[in-house]
Specification:
Layout (H helix, E strand, L loop, with lengths): L1 H34 L3 H5 L8 H15 L1 H5 L2 E2 L8 E2 H4 L2 H16 L6 H28 L1 H13 L1 H4 L10 H21 L2 H17 L3 H17 L5 H7 L5 H15 L2 H31 L8 H7 L3 H5 L1 H4 L9 H7 L3 H12 L5 H19 L4 H34 L13 H12 L4 H9 L2 H18 L1 E2 L2 E2 L5 H29 L7 E5 L2 E5 L1 H12 L5 E3 L5 H8 L2 E2 L8 H11 L3 H10 L4 E2 L17 H9 L39 H11 L3 H10 L5 E2 L16 H9 L8 H7 L9 H7 L2 E2 L10 H4 L2 E2 L4 E2 L3
Parallel strand pairs: 7-8, 7-9
Antiparallel strand pairs: 1-2, 3-4, 5-6, 10-11, 12-13
Amino acid sequence: MTVIAEAKRASALRNTFGGILGVFILLLIGVLAFSIRLFSVIKYESVIHEFDPYFNYRVTQYLTKNGIYDFWNWFDDRTWYPLGRVIGGTVYPGLTLTAGSMWWLLNSLNIPLSVETVCVFTAPIFSANAAWATYLLTKEVKGTGAGLTAAALLAIVPSYISRSVAGSYDNEAVAIFALILTFYLYVKTLNSGSLFYATLNALSYFYMVCSWGGYTFIINLIPMHVLLCIVTGRYSSRLYIAYAPLVFVIIHVVALVYYIKGILSPKMFKVAMTIAVTIGLAVCCAVIAILIALVNSSPTKGWSGRSLSLLDPTYASKYIPIIASVSEHQPPTWPSYFVGINVLAFLVPAGIIACFSPLSDASSFMILYLATSAYFSGVMVRLMLVLAPAACVMSGIALSEAFDVFTRSIKIQVPYLLDRPPCGDINSESSIAQNDVSNVDSHAPTDKAETVSKESSRKNQKKEKEQEIVEKVTSESQNGKRLPVLPQEVSAVAILLLTALGGFFVVHCVWATAHAYSAPTIVLKSYTPDGLHVLDDFREAYAWLRQNTDVDDKVASWWDYGYQITAMANRTVIIDNNTWNNTHIATVGAAMSSPEKAAWEIFNSLDVNYVLVVFGGLVGYPGDDINKFLWMVRIAGGVFPHIREQDYLVASWWDYGYQITAMANRTVIIDNNTWNNTHIATVGAAMSSPEKAAWEIFNSLDVNYVLVVFGGLVGYPGDDINKFLWMVRIAGGVFPHIREQDYLAAMASASFDPSPISSAVSSGILLPPTPPTPPGSPEASATQQNPFFYQRAS
């Protein structure tokens, strides 16, 4: 009895110490999740990032200043002029109410933080909450060890950090926590059958609906899992309790069938089922007919544009350019996965395998969650955010199971190698197997084994003994479950490799956070030969609008900048990032893509006082309006048929894209299609010929203007000088008198100056081809020509 009591006390002590250590690790994970997201504040300043967060910040300011009643009834006349917007009925209030409540609580405790500061740090705070929720979810699926590992992974995974750094005050800041919490409470209810957790699950789902439009993922994923359980014969009262508070007809029908089956005889149940199925089919047919009629009356068959884009990745690019124009709605590339989840992509398959041994309701839900999130992340790069928790849970399960096998293998074999029975349990759940292993070890070796050991060397003795230990321990079972045991050296090397893999993942996450996701778009960086330059042009421009324009002035810009103009400049905008009215956006796009007179008429009809245009060519900013111009054309063309994308594409040499000058809406000789090599070679021959020959070729093609790109002054490497030899090579493939070697010697000289490119350098990149200079004229005598190059006189 004394031995049993001591064993119980030792087990209780281990459990207490393990619980305290687990709480301490969770606190460290929370601190890690919060602190790693502060790079943006440390490197720059405490500032709101991106575009949408500025609208959320403005709404939160209004809420804290005017109260919740005025917030619900707020009609904002400074957006979408002259239409306006009802804020209370068109916004997800979860984020705003959460940050507003935090601000109110802190000020009630005499901690006077500004609304902006609370908004900046909301995402890091809820990232820690999301990590703890991930621990709870994974613990319900595969235990405490897997939960701690998954929580640590989610705290630093770049795919989640990209939307939750300090200053990223968007809906996802709290929505991912609500998503994981809803899944945890659902799985907890599946495992326990508790109506209390089912009620909490419904409340968590309500919070998720208030926070983010991605709630549709939950409202579809949980019914899919319930249906999967019903189809595979895994229906139980716990499943009913888990899903009943979310109210769905099928689960109630199935529960009613199981109840009737229990109170009726088999014969009566068969008759009742026949009647019920007949009536049910008739009702279902009528409902389906009504739904089909309603769906057919909708142009999109009842689906929203974003939903159709998820089901058909090409839908938005074909029919809704306003959705396709958003960068985060584009499909991700493979490097995006490597940056976003890194080595987790290789651990996820192992986690899936672990979930099948054994397969439970909780593990089947996680497999379904991973499969659906992986598909949707492949359609829209923004939804990699939803994939991140699933990848972390699966990777946490894989790492936990792997470390369990490797450490158990070492723990079991060390006592045998020391020629003494093992002390302690194999693990916290395998006392039975430990007793069996001890019994195996207590038996004396056979005579045959003694003979072999005498004939073998000491090294072979050790190897054979290790093999014998592995075979004996592996053959033992615990409650019918085999305990996999590996050789000690293999286990030690595997642990070292997994530790190194984890270190590589940590280094990658810190690098990605510091360099890829912490730079606010409101502040730009430019690297020049003089060093790093931080540009604050956006805020300076908005400050200029606020200080130098009237309060009632209207500002037209592309929709990306609408939220920032209203929040920082406090001026009325025509369109903004809400993008709810495609016609209004197309009208601004038509003005942006029209000649000056027509654009002025459109802006005048909208009562516009100022037009904001972003140009980033001098610092290489890739997100300026020049890069967005084709999307303006495409969106405008969807409403105004006279605006056609092909009219804005022009090229001189074939690989130039589009330009925004008076050349737009002009016929081109060749373009990027490159279907007619002879036609391209003809232009190449003109580009690589002397001025007289070039003029004759262009004249035969009925050319009015020649577009030549010269980038020498700014060091642009893609100009026509750098492409000149390719013009020669392509032309030489059709016209044998043009040979590359004839050009190489002259290119080495400082006087290399191909014509007509040389004329373009002095007179501008857009020029009409001029007739050749008459022989004997002063201009001709001042210029020396060879058969292939136009050389300027020194």
